[in-house]
Amino acid sequence: MSGTNYSKNTKRRLKPKYKNIAVILAALLLIISGTSYALSSSRKAPPPADDTLEQDGGSQLPSVELPSLPDEEPVDVDPAETDPTNQNSYYFDFVSMTEADLGTGELVLVNNMIKFRGSVNEEELLVVRDNKNSSYMVSDRNVKLLPSAMSALNEMLGDFFAATGNNGVMARSGYRTVEYQQELYEDDLASSGASSSTLVAMPGYSEHHTGLVVDFTTYNSQTDSYREFDGTGDFAWIMENCHRYGFINRYPEGKEKLTLIDNEPWHFRYVGIPHASIMKDYDFCLEEYIDFIKNYTIDSGFLLKDTDDGARYIVYYVPLSSGETTAVYHPKKHGSDEFYPYSISGNNVDGFIVTVQLREPSQPAQDNS
Q1: Which of 6-15, 28-37, 351-360 has the highest mean pLDDT?
Q2: For the domain that residue 175 is a member of, what is the CATH number?
Q3: Where does a domain end: 270, 299, 334?
Q4: Most buried by CB count within 10 Å: which residue of 21, 127, 197, 364?
Q5: What share of the chain is helix, strand, coil (3-state, %, to 5)?
Q6: Are 296 and 317 in contact (CB under 8 A)?
Q7: What is the pLDDT of residues 273-331, one digit of tens each?
Q8: Which long-range contacts (CB under 8 A, 24 or more apart) does 90-94 make?
Q9: Mean pLDDT for the chain overall
Q10: How far apart are CA 94 and CA 111, in angstroms?
C-alpha cells in the first residue's frame, strides 16, 4: 500500500511542474517582445534636441552645465619696456620753458657762429684743485667746473689711472669769463697776424663760458716736463672711453668745417650720459648731434639708447614755441604717480632736448682698455 500511495503522489506533483514551465515560457516570450519593442522605439525616437531627459510623468530634468575655469589674471606689462619709443606707452606731465631757457643745460651748442645765450652763476662753480681726487693734477686754482662736469672728471680720470697707472694728466683750463676770453683771442690774433682765429673762439662764443669744458695737458714728473695732450699712448684710453662718463672730444679731426675750430685733442666737453655715447655711436660732433636729435619728437617717436652698464634712456626734441612759454612734456612711471628721472636742456638755438632714464644701471661700465 505504501507503494501505491507513493505512485499517486508522484503523478499529482508532475501536473503542477508542467504548468509552471508553460508559465515561464509565456513570460519569456513577453520579455523578448518587450525588448524588441524598446529597441525599435529607441531607433525611431531620437533624443530631445535640447539634451534634456524625461522622467516618468513627462517632467524634464535640467541640462547639466560644466563648471567654468577661472579667468587668468592679466599680465601687467610696462609698455615702456615693450614699446619705449612710442608716446602712447606713457602718461605725461609738462613744465613750462621760455626762450631764456635755451641757454641752460648740458647740451647747449656754442661755436663761432652761435653765441652763448646763457650765463653761469660763478658761485656754483667748483675749484678743481679743491675737489679733485689723487689720480691727476691741476695747473692752478683758476681751473673751475660746474658740479656735473667735476664729478664726471673725477670718475673718468680715476678709472684712467686704475687702468693705466698713469697720473700724468693735468687739467689746465676750465671756466672762462668773457673778459678773459677776449684777452686770449687778442693774443692769438697778435701772434698770428690774422684777422680771425681757428684756435681760439671769439669772446662770448666760447664753450669755456659754459663751465662744462676742461682742457688737458700732460706732466712727466721724472723729467719735470710738460707735453701737449695728443690722445696717444696711455692717453688713448681717455679718447676711447670718455663717452662713458658723458664727455666728448669736442673738436675732432675731420670735423673742422662743422665745428669751425681746428682739431684739439685736449679739449673735452661734458654733454652728459647718454648723449656722449650716442655721438660716439654715430661719429657725430656736437653740431651734427643737435641737428640729428630733431628727428625724434613726441609725435615721431623717441630715440632709445641702452648703455653698456644696463641703463636705458629715451631722448627727444621739443621745438621752441612761438608763444611766451613752451610746454615740455616728460613721462610718468607705469602704474605710478612718480616720474621717471629726467633732465631738460636748451640747445642754445631753437628748442629743448629731453633726456629720460627708464632704467638704472645694473652693472659697471666696461672700458676699452
Answers
A1: 351-360
A2: 3.30.1380.10
A3: 270
A4: 197
A5: 35, 20, 40
A6: yes
A7: 999 999 999 999 999 999 999 999 999 999 999 999 999 999 999 999 999 999 999 99
A8: 90/331, 90/332, 91/331, 91/332, 92/298, 92/329, 92/330, 92/331, 92/332, 93/329, 93/330, 93/332, 93/339, 94/327, 94/328, 94/329, 94/330
A9: 85
A10: 30
Tally of domains in the chain: 2
Q: What pLDDT digit, counting tens, does each position of 156-180 carry? A: 999 999 999 999 999 999 999 999 9
Q: Inform me whether the pLDDT recorded for 334 exceeds 50.
A: yes
Is 115 found in the same domain as 100?
no
Alpha helices in 141-206 (DSSP H): 147-164, 178-192
CA distances from 16 to 5, 23, 24, 142, 157 (A): 18, 11, 12, 140, 125
Q: Which three cell numbers stand for residue 359?
A: 632704467
Between the CA of residue 47 and those of 37, 64, 251, what are the distances in Å?
Answer: 17, 16, 91
Cα three-residue angle 55-60-66, rounded to 5 degrees: 110
This prediction has a pTM of 0.78
Dist CA 224 CA 7 (whole Å): 155
What is the Cα–Cα distance from 202 to 110, expressed in whole angstroms?
11
User: Cell 519593442 sits at which residue?
Assistant: 37
User: Closest Cα partner for 116 from 177, 238, 205, 231?
Assistant: 205
* C-alpha cell recorded at residue 90: 606713457
Distance CA 208, CA 176 (A): 5
pLDDT of residue 76: 67
The answer to whether 222 and 167 are in contact (CB under 8 A) is no
Q: What is the pLDDT of residue 30?
A: 59
Q: Which three cell numbers stand for residue 20?
A: 509552471
241 and 98 within one domain? no
